[in-house]
Design a protein that fits this description.
It is built from eleven helices and ten strands. With 304 residues, it is an alpha/beta fold. The structure holds adenosine-5'-triphosphate. Adenosine-5'-triphosphate binds next to helix 1. It comes from Brassica rapa subsp. trilocularis.
């Protein structure tokens, strides 16, 4: 699926070929990185802390520019250059911590009078609003909105400055899902949710992919219930795509169908390799013999 030399198909929702990226004045995070995902897939993005998951999701969301115009394509359009991808709501990114203003929550496309720009210019701070106003975005299918409000158990009378982190997160997720996205990028968004909200949300995502052909990439460290949820898995190690395949093709899952143990074993062996690489070369220590006229090569060899 992901190999550079493997032919991509026209129904790929995500296509990354030969991508290189580095943060300003830093060593490259990605070098010649390739990933293809077919429309309708639900791909888990796994990897150790700092391996590059968030960076990759942000690149797919068009938030970071990479060299070359068609290197990162979402729905056959350039993720960075085609701003309509996000503005239309076809591409939605949900991640990071909840922010108080629409300006930052504007990762979610808001339309109509409640547009992100309008709110920023108005200097309006979402944090004191009734949730009712936050989710009442114009041009949204009311049935879909009701479904999401019900699914996420959102009380429209909540005041944003008086709700818990998990409740804020539910509102953020609701806003991000109001528009029927075609590609959804999720960066560990279920972390504040209780188990019922999380499982219901995963089921909703599954329906979106199965019924509408939407594509989801989900970076997470929480694997409960994901064995049967995901269709694909991409494992990033230090900016390299270590594995990328259909879930059904992961050989380790056939012997132990427990995703947590499988990923844990990958990360543990990765840590061992990294530790070996980092093992310091024993430093040469000067000894009393070094300055002695009687020192022998045997002594020197012993101390080095
Ligand atoms: N704004 C930045 N400037 C410079 N380096 C950064 C920046 N953001 C991330 N990095 C570096 O890029 C690498 C990948 O970070 P990234 O956040 O993509 O990892 P991650 O896999 O999402 O990690 P985690 O599982 O901890 O969320 C890390 O080495 C990190 O230090």
């Amino acid at each position: 699926m992901a190999a550079k030399d493997q032919a991509t198909t026209s129904d790929d929702a995500i296509r990354v070929s030969g991508m290189e990226f580095s943060y300003e004045a830093e060593d490259p995070i990605f070098f010649d990185f390739n990933l293809d995902l077919p429309a309708g897939s639900r791909c888990l993005l796994v990897g150790a802390n700092g391996s590059g998951k968030t960076t990759l999701l942000k690149i797919l969301a068009g938030k970071h520019m990479v060299g070359g115009k068609n290197v990162v394509q979402v729905l056959s359009r350039s993720a960075f250059h085609d701003t309509q991808l996000v503005c239309s709501g076809d591409l939605s990114y949900l991640g990071g911590s909840w922010s108080k203003t629409v300006g930052s929550a504007g990762e979610v496309p808001l339309q109509g009078d409640f547009s992100a720009e309008h709110m920023i210019f108005g200097g309006l701070d979402l944090s004191r609003l009734f949730v009712f106003f936050v989710v009442l975005v114009e041009g949204i299918d009311p049935v879909r909105r009701e479904k999401l409000i019900d699914l996420l158990d959102i009380n429209l009378q909540w005041r944003m400055h008086k709700v818990s982190d998990g409740q804020k997160r539910r509102v953020q997720i609701c806003m991000g899902l109001l528009h029927p996205f075609k590609v959804l990028l999720l960066d560990e968004v279920t972390v504040d949710l209780d188990v019922v909200a999380r499982m219901d949300l995963l089921e909703f995502f599954k329906e979106e992919c199965d019924q509408r052909g939407a594509t989801i990439v989900y970076a997470t460290h929480i694997f409960d219930g994901l064995e049967t949820w995901a269709t694909h898995l991409a494992y990033i190690q230090n900016g390299e795509l270590n594995r990328s395949s259909k879930m059904a093709d992961i050989s380790e899952m056939k012997t132990s169908p427990n995703l947590l143990s499988v990923v844990e074993s990958w990360l543990r062996s990765e840590t061992k390799i990294d530790k070996k690489k980092k093992e310091p070369v024993p430093a040469w220590k000067p000894t009393p013999f070094d300055n002695s006229p009687f020192r022998s090569s045997r002594h020197m060899a012993y101390y080095r």
